[in-house]
Structures are given as structure tokens and as C-alpha cells.
Amino acid sequence: MTILRSLAAASLLLALAAPVHAAGSYHVAHTYQLGVSGGWDYMTLDASTHTLYIAQGDKVVVFDTQSGTVSATIPGMAHTHGIVLSPDGKTAYVSDGGAGVVRIIDRATLQQTGKIAVGTNPDGMALEPVTGHLFVFCGKSKDLYVVDLSTNSVIAQLPLPGKPEFPVADGAGNVYDNIEDLHQLIKIDAAQNKIIDTITFEGCESPSGQAIDVANKRTFSVCDNGRMTVTELPKVKQIAMVTIGEGPDAAVFDPAQKLIFSSNGDVGTLSIVQELKPNEYSLVQTVKTAPKGRTLALNSATGDIYIVAPDPAATGAGPKPLILLDVSK
């Protein structure tokens, strides 16, 4: 009851807070035809090279944000999910859930150079900068594999309490991951490869997407019931709740603008939340995107958001062609 009263008080403060971001400033500026159809998952953008990597079925689609065209595809996979880029600009790691491996991609040639066997349905991944290890979360086997990228070998495996979604690293030696089916957040010590804290969220159903404000030590988990919950780090304490769109899947934080973005697939919207203070947040804009537009990527250089969705104008049976929306200021 104490937690619920605290969250109620925080929600009231959020409702009364005055937005500092101009309402209506974000809009869908461009719609691009990707020339592919079917399922898709995570997107990762390298702002320095204007390259957006999109996990799409049995391939990765490579999109040039400068020219607005698909520049290449990386084939030969089973069912792609997550994409992580190495900080040296040379390598990409793709979780192939259908094959139970992490595929290693040379970013210069876009060729596969190796693979690392992990658990069943590897999905979300996070590169932990202190150890330099890749944390691979497997949805069906409900476990975590830790990969030493200096040798591309698994050095640890640990069971998880439930189904993992959208991990993030805090830059201080910890990795945080939503446990979707138990409405939890777990904290993992990257040096020990050990779960050291767990909280069960109040008022948050099926948390999926997660973003992080490293400077202010906050994570933002988006929930199926149209809520975003804010967690204080490193002690892992739920401190606030914001109303967003229904059925969110992905979230990202823009430190330059102090904005949290949530792509809401059920209603086809983008919720934009302003971080007024580390404990004070306000929904400042809702942008209409496209039905099932559920994953997103941030262009850190421009503040633009990219969202993939099926083309709502497409007719006929079968998988719909995919479009990419550029949501800009």
C-alpha cells in the first residue's frame, strides 16, 4: 500500500507538471518503402555512418538514412531479433532466434564471419562496457549467456526467473532486464555474472521495452497496459508512473533533449515523455504513426525517431509490405 500511495502521489505530480517540450513539434516527416514483407524486430542505428540495421525475418535490412534507401541486406539467417554494434565500428552481432546463435557480421563487407551458439531463441542483447562482454537473453529457454568478445566464446550461463525483454547496461558494471511474464526487473552484476537484485513492478503489466538515463540513473520500462514505470538506480526502486499508449514494445531515451520515446503497436502511436527532473516526468506529445508500429530507433545526431510497421494502405491477404517512418521535429 505504501508503494501504491507513493506511485499515486507521483502520478498526480506528473499530471500537474507543465510540459517544457513544444507540443506538436514531432511529426511523421517521411515514409519509406522497404521492399520486404513479413515480421521484424529490433532496430539499431549508427548515427556516425547514417546506417540503420533492421532485424527482418531471415535477414538484416541495411538502410541509409541519408539517402532514404535500402543499401543492402544481410541474408542467411533463420529468425533475427536483436542487433548490437561494437564501439570500434567494425562488428555487428545479431541474435538469430531461429538458429539459436549469435551471428558475427563484418560491418565493412556485411558478411558473416562467425557464429556463437547460445540458448533457445536468443532475443535481446546488451554490450556491457566495463567488462566488454555481450549479454544475450534467450526468450524460450529463459536464460542468459555471457559472451567474451575477445574470444567470441560463452563464459557464463545463468537461468532467469522468467521471459526476458529489452536489456540495458548502466555503464557502471550492471545490466538490467525486464522479466515480462512476472512483471519484474532484474539487476545483474556483470563482473560476477550474477543476479543481485529483483523488484516486482506495481501497476505495470508485461514490461517489454526499456530505456536508460545513465547520467541520472533511471530506467524506463514500458508496459502493455499503457504505462511507463520509472526505476531509480542502482538500488532498483520504482519511483514514478506515466500514462502512455497501449501495447508498447520498444523505448529509447534521448539525453540531449531529456525525452523518452515509446512506440505503441496496439494503437499505432509514439508517446513522447519529458524528463523534467530525475523524479518528475510528463507526457508532452502523442504522434500518430501506423498500426503495429512497435519497434523504434533513435538518431542521436538529429533526435529523429525511426519506426517500422506494415503498410496500412496495403490490401490483400498475406504478409504486408513494411514501411519505415521517419518521425522528426
Descriptive account of the structure:
With 329 residues, the chain is mainly beta. It has two domains: 1-37 and 204-329, 7 Propeller (Methylamine Dehydrogenase, Chain H), CATH 2.130.10.10; 49-200, YVTN repeat-like/Quinoprotein amine dehydrogenase (Methylamine Dehydrogenase, Chain H). Helix content is 5%, strand content 55%. The strands form seven sheets. The chain has a four-stranded antiparallel β-sheet with strand order 1-28-27-26, with no helix packed on it. Strands 2-3-4-5 form a four-stranded antiparallel β-sheet, with no helix packed on it. The chain has a four-stranded antiparallel β-sheet with strand order 6-7-8-9, with no helix packed on it. The radius of gyration is 19 Å and the shape is globular. The termini are far apart. The relative contact order is 0.15.
